[in-house]
Amino acid sequence: MKWILRAGLLAVFAFFVLGPIGNLMIWSVAEQWFWPNRLPSQWGFRFWEVVFRPTGRAMESLWLSIWIALLTTATCLIVSVPAGYALARGKLPWRPIVMLIFLLPQAFPNLPVYINIARIFFEYDLNGTVAGVVMVHAVHGLVFSVWIATAAFAAIDPELEQAARNIGASGPRTFFEVTLPLALPGIVASAIFVFLESLDEFTGSYFVGAPEIRTLPLMLYSASAGGNIQIAAISALILLVPSILFMLLVERFLKGEVLAKMGR
């Protein structure tokens, strides 16, 4: 009886995880699908040709999304690596409060936060620019980046750094040749999280970037709102590819000892 129960639970889990993806795949090749038919009446790849034709804007939106995600990741790493090292190694008197500050953007509803950011950016001509979108993405990206980088540095045994100092290594040399390589898997994992968060981000891009900045999530929304379900399904599948690849990389780089140090 136990294996029947396990198989049933596994089937339910697979349905909820794979069901939406399967529905997207069906819609992506459905040239005609009318209610109440359970399956499309006509199959084909005509909408894939529409998405990938040279005059289509899907690939342009995809490359723009990737470019913005890379810039957001670089921005977050510039802040999170020194901040993570200082929070993990330094004796900061207000360390818990500093860590909490990086969590604040997640503590409030996104909509009013982004509306106020858009109002402020409007005064500085940042609305409708790549720089503005990168900045609003970095607000959320820093949560993952700083917390995971801090955990990665905290997971390193301080005696390894002390041993390097005892044999004459300077502080910067110890950091770049001992500390940073050991923390690198955690930092890479944080970069992947930030990249994926930025790649899929919609609300901030909508209020700060649209209509000049048209990322793939914005294109997906426009297609769905306009009734182009097939185009929206294909756009969602395109977004899934880098997400799945990078999540496999996260599983490789993010170790248990780093997770155990999260929030400490």
Brief write-up:
The chain is mainly α and 264 residues long. 77% of the residues lie in helices and 2% in strands. The chain has a two-stranded antiparallel ribbon.
Keywords:
264 residues; mainly alpha; two-stranded antiparallel ribbon; 12 helices; 2 strands; 77% helix; 2% strand
Explained architecture:
The chain is mainly alpha-helical and 264 residues long. It is 77% helix and 2% strand. It has 12 helices and 2 strands; from the N terminus they run αββααααααααααα. It has helices at residues 2-28, 46-52, 58-89, 95-107, 110-123, 130-154, 158-166, 171-200, 203-209, 216-225, 229-253, 256-260; strands spanning 30-32, 42-43. Strands 1-2 form a two-stranded antiparallel ribbon.
Mean pLDDT value:
83
Strand coverage percent: under 5%
Number of helices: 12
General form: globular
Helix content: over 70%
Outline the low-pLDDT stretches.
none
Strand order of the largest sheet: 1-2
* Estimated radius of gyration: 23 Å
Structural class: mainly alpha
Distance between the termini: 43 Å
- Number of E-type strands: 2
Main sheet makeup: 2 strands, antiparallel
Q: Could you spell the SSE succession in H and E letters?
A: HEEHHHHHHHHHHH
